[in-house]
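Narrative summary of target 7.
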Amino acid sequence: THEGLRLQVVNNLVWGQVRVGVAAQGCADCLVAHNSLALVDAGQPLRSLTGESASGAPSYTQDLRLINNLVHLDGRAPGSLLNFTADNLAGLVQSHNLYHYTGGPVSGLYSDTPIAGPGDVIDQDPRLGDPPSGDLTLRAGSPALGAGLPLPEVVRDVTGACRAAANIGAY
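Modeled conformation, tokenized:
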């Protein structure tokens, strides 16, 4: 039994001083895709935890897909970039995500789960509009432009426009 089954967390904009950007808890066959996160002093940008079913039994996250997400970090280093406990890793798919930290290389950040997705873009400035004001649009020359993986489940961007290109992030 799971707390969530086949849920989709897509096309979200999350910015500012947010402790946890996106969390999956007890989710089975869920998709976290095309989200843009520009976080300041984040604790755990992406997290997966054990939940509790209605009967009180543990509910583990499994078959979670993290695809085409943009994670731009500023300020203090997060406690864990991918805060996924070992019992919540079954079937985890990571692909075509962009990770950038203004304080240094992403490889220097602690992560419970290694960043290991094909097509991932690491340590490249995503060239966002104006993150402090919530403008997470992609400017010309952004490495996220056209670098995503086409997903049949997500055919529109955060504005409602058809996705003409498979960009990483919500736009």
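The longest strand covers residues 20-25.
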